[in-house]
Amino acid sequence: MSPSHIARCTQLAMLLEVSATPKPGNIDRDHNYTDTRFEHFLASAVGVYPVLEKAAHSKSGIGALIHEAVKKSTLWQKGGNTHFGAFILLIPLVMAAGKCENETCLKAQVQNVVKETTVEDAIEFYRAFSEARVKVKTVDDLALGDAASIDKIRAQGLTLFNMMEISSSYDMLANEWVNGFQKTFECSGSIRNKIKNHGINDAVVLTFMELLSSNKDTFIQTKFDSKKAEQVSMRAREILQKADMGDIRDEIHSFDNELLKEGINPGSTADIIIAGLFVALFEGMRF
Amino acid sequence: MSPSHIARCTQLAMLLEVSATPKPGNIDRDHNYTDTRFEHFLASAVGVYPVLEKAAHSKSGIGALIHEAVKKSTLWQKGGNTHFGAFILLIPLVMAAGKCENETCLKAQVQNVVKETTVEDAIEFYRAFSEARVKVKTVDDLALGDAASIDKIRAQGLTLFNMMEISSSYDMLANEWVNGFQKTFECSGSIRNKIKNHGINDAVVLTFMELLSSNKDTFIQTKFDSKKAEQVSMRAREILQKADMGDIRDEIHSFDNELLKEGINPGSTADIIIAGLFVALFEGMRF
Fold first, then answer.
1. A228 lies in some domain
2. Are A287 and B77 in contact (CB < 8 Å)?
3. How confident is the model at residue B199 (pLDDT cuts 50, 70, 90)?
4. What CATH number did the domain enclosing A75 receive?
5. Which Pfam family, giving just one, matches this sequence (chains A, B) (predicted)?
6. Which residues of chain A neighbour B22 with C-beta distances below 8 Å?
7. Does residue B94 belong to any structural domain of this protein?
8. Sign of the dihedral through C-alpha B253, B259, B261, B265
9. pLDDT attached to residue B20
10. Which domain holds residue B94?
């Protein structure tokens, strides 16, 4: 696969995820927040192309590439952070895809890619986080945006993979890094299984609901608390237990309204869905 | 501007146009046709990137580039023809943008680009049309998909610009070629003027309505007749005469439903809107 092909699979993954509706609590084609709108996500997916293409033929530099992706995304739109979390998963996946000689070796390659990260990757990643002002739990005593923390990372010789290991117990995205992108590949399988009967929109929505029902969303935990995240997952589980698709759709709509009203957005769940869509598209899914 | 930057302005133009809603009669983020869906337009905009980048550093070969764009678009999605008409305008605009040393010379350059087309461009364009099975009025006695017609083009020495001249009296897109992309640049200005007060979605919707109100849509004329196209334009004019934006929105929704019910889609109007969005983005519009 050419770097251009891989970059386009990534763009399309970002576009399909943000378009899928209703995706409870998150921005989708029918929902905007006040300052961040659907169109900002379109512009971000478009603008970031050169960084994705570069990542597809890069053998190292994950941290710098994530940093560059965030910068490019915000150059093309004024809605702020749209895809930071997604880039944490997409950049290593895109780099792994670039190393693959066929569509089936992605799972093995991405594990190598994240394990080969360096202290410089950790520092670049820290800088990116600090600039993007993303809500995030402080990793141990390393305060984001604090120059002293960068010295600590260097002194302790922490690689980006080490930092993800530290966060993996409570952060879904870090957990993907540490556990071979397990949920990402599960989502890819789920979307591919559902697309024939449900179409691409509903395949994404149902997979989103399944992922949310079985995992407390990190973004909700950080913004609210663990209890709130667990309540949201429980509510998703209840809805999925309905057998009839018509009923489920109505319930998902109500669920969406409830979450939007409370300002609860399961952003980390959406990030894993984007990564899953990328895998499915890279492995040949079309519609 | 780099070819990549130009290609991304084009992708974003395609995405913003198909997303804008309600866009009476056409596919938008809230409306699909049976076989062609919103997501097919997203995939087409993504898939065509390499052809756009190539066009941005090409000095000739419009016909072959349009042909290649149509092929690439349909490789990435199974919804059929999504952007044929748009490519007729976008490819010369992208080529012109690639020749520009700043954002302001586009209007002059695009006129040169279309005038420099050759007989080979006409033949390639004919082939693309024939393969895409787009509804189109036969140009004089040149029947689309007919090998004898290609011989006639060659025998008469018709360039693609000549063919557009022949069609320009009844075809909005051909008329753009012949008249310096006048409506395209007007749409660009209108969108840029409206974006501050109305946001990007409504700026596109209102400009679409204005264009439709003052021009009989070619696609409607071909699919139905000139009378139907005139009725649609008249209805758009009536709606725009309402002073209050809230009222207009409701009326546009009703208009949308009427057109969808009758299967009337102002496709050529949408193509010019995409071209106008490209010009605005190339000239620096962000949101």
1. no
2. yes
3. very high
4. 1.10.4200
5. CitG
6. none
7. yes
8. negative
9. 97
10. 3-282
- Least CB–CB distance from A4: residue in B15, B50, B77: B50
CA B253 – CA B38 distance, rounded (Å): 18
pLDDT, tens only, B136-161: 566 666 655 566 788 999 999 999 99
Instruction: Collect all residues of chain B within an 8 Å Cβ-Cβ radius of residue A49.
Output: 4, 7-8, 11, 49
| pLDDT the model gives residue B192 | 98
Q: Give chain B as a DSSP string.
A: --HHHHHHHHHHHHHHHHH-S--TTS-BTTB--SS--HHHHHHHHHHTHHHHHHHHT-SS-HHHHHHHHHHHHHHS-SS--SSHHHHHHHHHHHHHHHH-SSTT-HHHHHHHHHHT--HHHHHHHHHHHHHHT-----BTTB-TT-HHHHHHHHHHT--HHHHHHHHTTT-HHHHHHHTTTHHHHHHHHHHHHHHHHHHHHHHHHHHHHHHHHHS--HHHHHHS-HHHHHHHHHHHHHHHT---HHHHHHHHHHHHHHHHHHT---HHHHHHHHHHHHHHHHTT---
B144 lies in some domain? yes
Both structure tokens of B123: 């033949």
* Domain count along chain B: 1
CA nearest to B17 within chain A: A39
Q: Is residue A230 part of a domain?
A: no
